[in-house]
Every structure is written in structure tokens, then in C-alpha cells.
């Protein structure tokens, strides 16, 4: 492998890693600000202008808190839990195409770490691993509330993964490709965005994304008025920080996936009619992608502070009796639509 | 080739840990790592689709359910019954017979003429789909009966009887 | 193929009937559907016997498959006739039981007609998964639960062996297709060593499913714990099907002389072990059902003779033996169900004096026992006779002598129940035998005698 290639990829990985952490950090501030806005309050405003430095203060606080490991717990797994949660949250970003390629003289830099031809399935796999951090952490705490949270997380994730998979299958029937890069490239402009072809699929996908990220209204693993703190009841300090960070990173990555799969990724309207150089288009595209991501993150928070949490049986009913049949119906409808389109609108 | 031996060593090492660890939860966690090494084997064989499906289905779904059940039962070292020595000896003898058979046949095989795949791209999604929906269409469709009967059975066994008997 | 489709659609239809609470219609619809499937099966009968495989070599529905499918469908038909009011006593979800039995039958037809190892695997899985469930349908009965779990664990394990064996066969020959494997064996100068390991593992997997010793240890517990009707299904239809699969694999793919030198000794050991363990332990049983379970192990031993003496006559030998064994077992299980339902216990003492009070039941049961023991003028004798002639024609004299000795032991424990019925007196009331049972008993007994007196009409079929 060439050195230049390694350096290029390494730099890209570092940049994406830093951006993910930065976005996650400022999501905490955004969450509090949006909550305050929706509830008619001011929110954090002491640290810096409008609370600009609040995430830094929170981070510093996390680091300096006492690290408590319960005596009856399983030491190794107790630490492994949040680490795994962070790891699985971060590795999802590897296959997301952050933009088209940048050209510097002879070298072409792809703004994607790895273009594997089963990209969607990779994302799906990483998502399905995400539950291990919570399960292991919850079990290792040796606390019945934590265990309850862990078990809820497991059953919830398994249930919603199926519906998510079904919605992805319908999407694949439209795109004919599993590579995220190709899917993003297909959605050039505005009219080609997959969300127009797959509105129902997108709805199922976003609901499942909420459930997989354990966000309200599906935050049963940590529902604080039933389970104290859910799976992270026993956690403190930076290990608790790991779990919280993982949640925000998950939100960021799943927003990026939704933007890429359904909302055109880095594509924006009239991108081919502006007559700008390719590099500029690429940079604007990256900005548009991030705009879409931020919109979805805002949407996540908006829902959190608007919709109350589901009861457990409602959650299961929604997953198994509503979303899965809808997902199957969506596949059938998509198939019919593809045949009709191929026969009559060629 | 070296990478293969390293990963193969890891697979065997972790699968041995699955057997030897006393705590069932540890066993399951080691099993997850074993499955991960198997995923890497698939990638080395250029079977990307199988690799990722192994990743999703085994690591992401089946093992989660395993862990889920173990956590619900809250099994640990104390609750595992000790096997009698006779059973242990019988198990070792039977296992060794299998090992001898397999090792013997593979050793006699030799590795002087490695098998060359006719189509190295066979593991990619498109090619796999073509084989599955052409040559192996019937087994693929018939497996729906397998899944359906398993599903009916699962519901049947799990559902509460309305009538007390 | 149309048979498979018919039966699986029938299963789904029955499921829907259950959904719409048409409990009365379940049994008639199932039986009519089975008759239709039987008719379709006979439709595949090919006098020229040169049927081509279909679906790129996945299935080969030749006369062999027609015979075994028909046998499976007829025995399922007879067993299901015994099921009137049977499932209702277990639970409210009757339709599902019929559905799962029909699914199991689908699997059985697949493994009677496969021509590709992937189909064999799927067929065996469909059959086994359905059986795991059927074993455990008595949810409140611990014996049934235990049997289901044991069967599931053992079955999954043995499927693993079978799959491993198939993989190694594939690894050596490069194909799942039976004909391709035969071509590989015929054309290669030196057969790869992993091919032999593959044969061994496939034998282990299939023997697990058939319940041959030393892979029999799940059989008694499972047969005893499962509901009697399901035991009847498992020990007759399923065993026959596994043997059909066994025979097909070995006859089409592995019948070359060099390979026979390898696997015949293995099967000889398995057959003698099955005979010995099955017969000796059956002698010591005090319960009729458990005795039948152990004796089924010995019957597997006799059936293995057909493989040991593999020739073109093997399929009719296995077919005749399996038919005789199946029909006789159905009578035995029908009698057992009658006794069990009204006495509640199936130890031999409960058969005392049955000869005087229920002459029909006692007579049919006696004929079935005679057939199982292999007394002349019954179907069982013809079956054993064909097995032994086959073995003698390939010079397995010691094995045949050993088997004859075992058959004599068999007579002893089979006649115990006859002795109890006719020669031991007991104060007892007449058992009520429902009409359906009577039909099954009479039909099966007639079949046993007809095959016994005039075997040619089914022996020359295949």
C-alpha cells in the first residue's frame, strides 16, 4: 500500500473523528438550548456567549469526577461497556460519503474512508452491534435497574432492526446498489432524492433510527422515572460520559445515514447548473450534507421534547404489529411500482 | 497467508475460551469474538456478502438474544452443575475421535495444490444473487416452509393457553 | 413438485381454517387434501422409469420417490385418522398441530425425492423443526417438555454433523448434485481423504436422525415423552423417510466398490450395535410404549442391512420392510392410544384380559406384534426375509446369524403383550374403540396379511 494513500486515509479518519466528537459535544448544548426554547426558558448562558463553552465545562467536569466502580460488579466488563458503546458509535462513519472527490493537481481525494460494495449492510451491522455496549455495561453493573435497562435495550434493538432492514430492502430495490457512494451519486440534483421514491420507507427508517439510538420516545432503556438511570445507573465520571457521548454520536451518524440514503447526501438543487469548478461544488456539497445532518439532529431533539415516552407494550406493538407489516407492504408496493414504471414509463 | 494463520489462531483460541470459561456470559462474549474472527475469514475469502451477513445475523442478532436470555436467567459460575467424570471422559474421547478423523483427512490432503476459484468474484452480492435465484432457486424458496413452520411452532409454544387444563 | 406444493398449501389452508374457528372441518379437509396429494403422487409413476431431475437437478421424482412419498402420505393419513378428538384434549390450538404435521410431511417428501444435498439438508431441517415442536406440544407436561428439549438439542447437534459431512463431500467433489458426486468418484484416480471424512460424518448425522445405536440415546426418552400420536408419526413415517434419504445418497452417489469397502464395515458395526442394544434393552421394559421405542432401534438395525447389501434390490427391500414396520407400528400405537386413554397407564399388566373383552383390538394387536417379530404369513416376515437374503447374497453370514438370533429375542418381548392379552386374566371392562380406530386397525391388519401372503404386488413395484 502506498504511503500517500495511508496518510490520506489516516488524515480523513482523524478529521471525521474530530468532527464527530465536536458535533456530539455541541449536540449536548444544542439539546439543552432546544429544550429551553421549546419550554420557554433561556437554557445555559453563563459559560461564554450564549453558553458557548458549556460543553467544555461539562467535559472538564466529567473528567474530574470520581470514578466509581461498584465492588460487586464485573470490573473488566464494567469498563468495556462504555468503550464498546463509543467504538460501535464511531466506526459507522467509515462508509459514509461525506462529499464528492477533491482534485489537487494529479491527486484525487475521495471524501469517504472506505467504499465497500456492501456499505448499507455494514451500517446495518454496526447498528446491530451498538446494543452490546449497553447490554454489557448494564449487566456488569450488577444492579437490577441496570439489568432491566440492558434487557429492554436488547429486545428493543432486535425488534426494530427487522423493520429497519425491511425498509432498507425496499430502498435497495430502487437503488440497485449496496454501495453508499453509488447511492449518493445517483441522487444528483433534487428530483432524484430517494425520499420521493420511498416516503413510507423513510418514515419506517426514521422511526427505527429513533429506536436504535434509544432516543425519546423510545428511551426505555434509561427511562429515569422507572429505572433510576437505566443501564447507566451505576456509572459516573468519564465512563458515564462515554455512554452519553455514544448516544450523541449515534444520533450524528444516523442523521448522516438518513441524509445519504434518502435526502441526497451531498447533493443539492441545481448543483449541475451553477457552472462552478468541481472542487467548489464538492465543498458546497459537504456543507449541504452537514446542513441536512444538523436538521435531522434538530429533528431528533424536537421530537424528544415534544413526544412523551411510549409504554413498553406500546413500543413492542408498534415495532412488531405496525412497522414490520408496513415494511413488508412497502416492499411489495415498491416492487409493483418498479414493474409499472418499467412497463409504462420507459 | 500469514494473516490467515493469525486469524485462524485467534478463532481457535477464542473458541477454546468459549468452552473453558466458567461464566456463561463470558462464554457468549467469547463466542461473539469468535464470530468476528469468522467474519474476517469471509473477508479474506472475498465473500463480502457472507461476511456482512455473518456480522449482522450472528453477532448482531443471534448473540444478542443469547446474551439476553442468559442475563434474564442470571446464570453464573455457582449455578452451573458439575458434570460427572464419566461424561467428561466420554466427551473427550468422542471429541478426540472427531478431531483425529478430521486432522487425519486434512493432513493427507496436503496443501501443494491450492484450489483456484473459477470465479473469484463469486462472493459478491450480485454473483451470489444470480446463483441463488437461478441454480438454487428451489432450496431458496423451500426454506420459506422451514421458516414458516418454525414460526408457527414458536408462536404455538410461546402463546399462553386460554383454557386451563 | 406438485405434491410438495399441494401439501404445503394444504398446511396453510388448515392454518386459516383454524383462524376462522372451523374446528369441525380441520380433520376432513386434511384427509381429503392428503388423498389429493396421494393421487398426484401416483400421477408421477413412470413405467419406463427414466424420470428427469427438475429445477436444475434439485429434485428427482422417480418411482423410488413415488413409492416412499406414497407410503409416507398413506401412513400419515392413517395416523391422522387416529387424531380425532386427540389434540383437543391437549390444547385449543388444534389447527396448528395439523399444520405442523403437514409441514413435516412436506419435508419428508422433499427428502424422499432430493437430488441435491442442499435439498436433503433443507428437507431434513423442515422435518426436524416440525418434530421438535410436535414433541413439546403438551406444554404442561414435564416429560413432554424434557423430550422436546432433548430432541431439539440432539437433533440440532446431529444436523450439524450432517451439514459438516455435506460440506466435506462438496469440498472434495465440488458439487452438491448426487450425479456429479458419483461422476467425481468414478472419474478421479485418487479420492480425496476429506471425502471419506464426509461420508463418515453424513452417516453419523443420518444415523442420529434414524436413531441407530450408538446414536440412539435420545430415542427412548423422546418417544416416551412425546404425545403418543406424535410418537407414532416419528417412529414410522420419519424413520422411513430418513432411510429413503440414506438409501438415495448411498445408492446414487456412494455405491462404487472402493467406497463400499470403506463404509460397509462401519454400517455393519452400527447395524449389529443397533440390533443388540435395541433388543436387549427392549426385553427389560415394563411399559408398552418404551418397549416399542427400544424395538424401533432394533428395526433400524434390520433396515441398515439393505445398505450393507447395497444393490438394485435394496430399494424394494427397504420399501417392503419400512411398509411392514410402519403398518404394524400404527396398529400397535393405535391400541396403545386406546389403552392409554381409558386406563391411563401403558404397563403390560394393563393389557391383561383384553383378549376376552376386546377381541378385535386384541386380534389386530396380535397380528401387528407377530408382524413386528417377523413370524411367517405377516408382512414383517417378508421384510426380514428380504433383508437377510440380501445380506447373505453379499456373504455377510456372521451378521445374518447374529440378526436371526436377535430376531428370536424379539419374538420373546413382542409376544409378552400377546400373552398378557390372552393368557392372563383380569377383571376389566370393555374398552370403547372409536369407529375411526376400528377402520385404521382393520385396514392395517388386512394390509399386513396381504403383504405377508402375497408380497409380490408391492415388492416388484420399484
From TrEMBL, chain A:
It is an enzyme of class 7 (translocase). Pfam families: NADHdh. Its EC number is 7.1.1.-. It catalyses: a quinone + NADH + 5 H(+)(in) = a quinol + NAD(+) + 4 H(+)(out). It comes from the Bacteria. Belongs to the complex I subunit 1 family. NDH-1 shuttles electrons from NADH, via FMN and iron-sulfur (Fe-S) centers, to quinones in the respiratory chain. The immediate electron acceptor for the enzyme in this species is believed to be ubiquinone. Couples the redox reaction to proton translocation (for every two electrons transferred, four hydrogen ions are translocated across the cytoplasmic membrane), and thus conserves the redox energy in a proton gradient. This subunit may bind ubiquinone. NDH-1 is composed of 14 different subunits. Subunits NuoA, H, J, K, L, M, N constitute the membrane sector of the complex. This is NADH-quinone oxidoreductase subunit H. It comes from Paradesertivirga mongoliensis.
UniProtKB/TrEMBL annotation, chain B:
It catalyses: a quinone + NADH + 5 H(+)(in) = a quinol + NAD(+) + 4 H(+)(out). Keywords: Cell membrane, Membrane, NAD, Quinone, Transmembrane, Transmembrane helix. The keyword Hydrolase does not apply. InterPro entries: NADH_UbQ/plastoQ_OxRdtase_su6, Nuo/plastoQ_OxRdtase_6_NuoJ. Its main location: membrane. The keyword Acyltransferase does not apply. The chain crosses the membrane at residues 6-21, 28-45, 51-73, 85-109, 136-158. It is found in: Cell membrane. NDH-1 shuttles electrons from NADH, via FMN and iron-sulfur (Fe-S) centers, to quinones in the respiratory chain. Couples the redox reaction to proton translocation (for every two electrons transferred, four hydrogen ions are translocated across the cytoplasmic membrane), and thus conserves the redox energy in a proton gradient. Belongs to the complex I subunit 6 family. This is NADH-quinone oxidoreductase subunit J. It comes from Paradesertivirga mongoliensis.
TrEMBL record, chain C:
The keyword Transmembrane applies. Keywords: Cell membrane, Membrane, NAD, Quinone, Translocase, Transmembrane, Transmembrane helix, Transport. It is a multi-pass membrane protein. InterPro entries: NADH-Q_OxRdtase_suN/2, ND/Mrp_TM. Residues 116-407 form the NADH:quinone oxidoreductase/Mrp antiporter transmembrane domain. NDH-1 is composed of 14 different subunits. Subunits NuoA, H, J, K, L, M, N constitute the membrane sector of the complex. Its main location: membrane. NDH-1 shuttles electrons from NADH, via FMN and iron-sulfur (Fe-S) centers, to quinones in the respiratory chain. The immediate electron acceptor for the enzyme in this species is believed to be a menaquinone. Couples the redox reaction to proton translocation (for every two electrons transferred, four hydrogen ions are translocated across the cytoplasmic membrane), and thus conserves the redox energy in a proton gradient. Its EC number is 7.1.1.-. This is NADH-quinone oxidoreductase subunit N. It catalyses: a quinone + NADH + 5 H(+)(in) = a quinol + NAD(+) + 4 H(+)(out).
Amino acid at each position: 500500500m502506498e504511503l500517500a494513500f495511508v496518510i490520506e486515509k489516516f488524515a480523513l479518519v482523524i478529521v471525521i473523528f474530530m468532527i464527530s466528537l465536536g458535533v456530539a459535544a455541541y449536540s449536548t448544548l444544542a439539546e439543552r438550548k432546544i429544550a429551553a426554547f421549546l419550554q420557554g426558558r433561556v437554557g445555559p448562558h453563563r459559560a461564554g456567549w450564549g453558553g458557548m463553552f458549556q460543553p467544555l465545562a461539562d467535559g472538564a467536569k466529567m473528567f474530574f469526577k470520581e470514578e466509581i466502580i461498584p465492588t460487586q460488579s464485573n470490573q473488566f466488563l464494567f469498563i468495556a461497556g462504555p468503550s464498546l458503546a463509543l467504538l460501535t458509535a464511531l466506526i459507522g462513519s467509515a462508509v459514509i460519503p461525506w462529499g464528492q472527490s477533491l482534485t489537487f493537481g494529479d491527486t484525487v481525494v475521495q471524501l469517504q474512508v472506505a467504499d465497500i460494495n456492501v456499505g448499507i449492510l455494514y451500517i446495518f451491522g454496526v447498528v446491530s452491534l451498538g446494543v452490546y455496549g449497553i447490554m454489557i455495561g448494564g449487566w456488569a453493573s450488577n444492579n437490577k435497574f441496570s439489568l432491566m435497562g440492558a434487557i429492554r435495550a436488547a429486545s428493543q434493538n432486535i425488534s426494530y432492526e427487522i423493520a429497519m432492514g425491511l425498509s432498507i430492502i425496499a430502498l435497495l430495490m430502487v437503488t440497485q446498489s449496496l454501495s453508499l457512494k453509488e447511492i449518493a451519486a445517483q441522487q444528483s440534483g433534487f428530483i432524484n432524492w430517494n425520499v420521493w421514491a420511498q416516503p413510507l420507507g423513510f418514515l419506517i427508517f426514521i422511526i427505527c433510527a429513533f429506536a436504535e439510538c434509544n432516543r425519546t420516545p423510545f428511551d426505555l432503556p434509561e427511562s429515569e422515572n422507572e429505572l433510576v438511570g437505566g443501564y447507566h445507573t451505576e456509572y459516573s465520571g468519564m465512563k458515564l460520559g462515554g455512554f452519553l457521548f455514544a448516544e450523541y454520536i449515534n444520533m450524528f451518524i444516523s442523521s448522516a445515514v438518513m441524509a445519504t440514503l434518502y435526502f441526497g447526501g451531498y447533493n443539492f438543487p441545481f448543483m449541475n447548473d451553477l457552472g462552478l469548478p468541481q472542487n467548489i461544488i464538492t465543498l458546497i456539497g459537504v456543507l449541504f450534507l452537514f446542513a441536512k445532518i444538523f436538521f435531522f439532529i434538530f429533528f431528533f431533539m424536537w421530537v424528544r421534547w415534544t413526544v412523551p415516552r411510549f409504554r413498553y407494550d406500546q413500543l413492542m406493538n408498534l415495532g412488531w404489529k405496525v412497522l414490520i407489516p408496513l415494511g413488508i407492504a412497502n416492499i411489495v408496493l415498491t416492487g409493483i411500482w418498479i414493474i409499472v414504471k418499467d412497463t409504462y414509463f420507459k | 497467508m500469514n494473516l490467515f494463520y493469525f486469524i485462524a489462531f485467534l478463532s481457535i483460541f477464542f473458541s477454546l475460551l468459549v468452552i473453558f470459561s466458567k461464566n456463561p456470559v463470558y462464554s457468549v462474549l467469547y463466542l461473539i469474538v469468535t464470530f468476528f474472527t469468522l467474519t474476517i475469514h469471509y473477508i479474506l475469502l472475498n465473500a463480502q456478502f457472507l461476511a456482512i451477513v455473518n456480522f449482522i445475523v450472528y453477532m448482531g442478532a443471534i448473540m444478542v438474544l443469547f446474551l439476553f436470555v442468559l442475563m434474564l436467567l442470571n446464570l453464573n459460575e455457582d449455578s452451573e452443575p458439575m458434570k460427572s467424570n464419566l461424561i467428561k471422559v466420554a466427551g473427550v474421547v468422542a471429541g478426540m475421535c472427531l478431531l483425529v478423523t478430521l486432522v487425519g483427512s486434512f493432513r493427507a490432503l496436503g496443501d501443494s495444490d491450492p484450489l483456484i476459484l473459477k470465479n473469484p468474484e463469486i462472493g459478491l452480492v450480485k454473483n451470489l444473487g444470480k446463483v441463488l435465484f437461478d441454480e438454487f432457486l428451489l432450496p431458496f424458496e423451500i426454506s420459506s416452509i422451514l421458516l414458516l413452520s418454525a414460526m408457527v411452532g414458536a408462536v404455538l409454544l410461546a402463546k399462553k393457553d386460554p383454557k386451563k387444563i | 413438485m406438485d405434491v410438495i406444493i399441494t401439501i404445503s398449501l394444504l398446511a396453510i389452508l388448515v392454518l386459516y381454517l383454524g383462524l376462522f374457528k372451523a374446528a369441525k372441518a380441520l380433520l376432513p379437509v386434511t384427509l381429503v387434501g392428503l388423498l389429493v396429494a396421494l393421487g398426484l403422487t401416483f400421477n408421477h409413476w413412470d413405467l419406463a422409469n427414466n424420470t428427469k431431475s427438475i429445477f436444475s437437478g434439485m429434485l428427482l421424482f422417480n418411482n423410488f420417490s413415488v413409492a416412499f412419498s406414497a407410503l409416507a402420505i398413506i401412513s400419515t393419513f392413517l395416523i391422522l385418522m387416529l387424531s380425532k378428538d386427540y389434540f383437543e384434549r391437549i390444547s385449543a390450538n388444534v389447527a396448528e398441530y395439523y399444520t405442523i404435521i403437514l409441514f413435516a410431511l412436506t419435508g419428508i417428501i422433499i427428502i424422499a425425492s432430493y437430488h441435491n444435498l442442499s435439498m436433503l439438508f433443507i428437507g431434513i431441517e423442515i422435518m426436524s423443526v416440525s418434530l421438535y415442536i410436535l414433541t413439546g406440544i403438551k406444554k404442561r407436561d414435564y416429560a413432554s417438555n424434557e423430550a422436546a428439549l432433548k430432541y431439539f438439542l440432539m437433533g440440532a447437534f446431529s444436523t450439524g454433523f450432517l451439514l459438516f459431512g455435506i460440506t466435506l463431500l462438496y469440498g472434495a467433489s465440488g458439487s452438491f448434485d448426487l450425479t456429479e458426486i458419483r461422476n467425481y468418484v468414478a472419474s478421479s484416480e485418487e479420492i480425496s481423504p476429506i471425502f471419506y471424512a464426509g461420508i463418515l460424518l453424513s452417516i453419523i448425522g443420518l444415523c442420529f436422525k434414524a436413531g441407530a445405536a450408538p446414536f440412539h440415546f435420545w430415542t427412548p426418552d423422546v418417544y416416551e415423552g412425546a404425545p403418543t400420536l406424535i410418537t407414532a408419526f416419528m417412529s414410522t413415517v420419519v424413520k422411513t423417510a430418513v432411510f429413503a434419504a440414506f438409501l438415495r445418497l448411498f445408492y446414487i452417489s456412494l455405491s462404487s466398490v472402493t467406497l463400499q469397502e470403506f463404509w460397509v464395515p462401519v454400517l455393519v458395526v452400527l447395524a449389529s450395535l443397533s440390533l443388540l442394544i435395541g433388543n436387549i434393552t427392549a426385553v427389560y421394559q415394563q411399559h408398552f410404549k418404551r418397549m416399542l421405542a427400544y424395538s424401533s432401534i432394533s428395526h433400524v438395525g434390520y433396515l441398515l442391512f439393505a445398505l450393507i447389501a447395497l444393490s438394485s434390490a435394496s430399494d424394494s427391500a427397504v420399501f417392503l420392510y419400512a411398509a411392514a414396520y410402519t403398518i404394524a407400528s400404527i396398529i400397535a400405537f393405535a391400541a396403545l392410544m386406546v389403552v392409554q386413554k381409558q386406563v391411563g397407564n401403558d404397563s403390560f399388566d394393563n393389557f391383561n384380559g383384553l383378549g376376552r373383552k376386546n377381541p378385535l383390538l386384541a386380534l389386530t394387536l396380535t397380528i401387528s406384534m407377530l408382524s413386528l417379530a417377523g413370524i411367517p404369513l405377516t408382512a414383517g416376515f417378508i421384510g426380514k426375509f428380504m433383508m437377510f437374503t440380501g445380506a447373505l447374497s453379499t456373504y455377510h453370514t456372521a451378521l445374518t446369524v447374529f440378526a436371526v438370533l436377535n430376531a428370536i429375542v424379539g419374538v420373546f418381548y413382542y409376544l409378552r403383550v400377546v400373552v398378557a392379552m390372552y393368557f392372563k386374566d383380569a377383571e376389566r371392562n370393555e374398552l370403547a374403540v372409536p369407529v375411526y380406530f376400528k377402520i385404521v386397525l382393520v385396514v392395517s391388519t388386512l394390509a399386513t396379511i396381504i403383504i405377508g401372503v402375497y408380497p409380490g404386488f408391492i415388492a416388484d413395484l420399484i
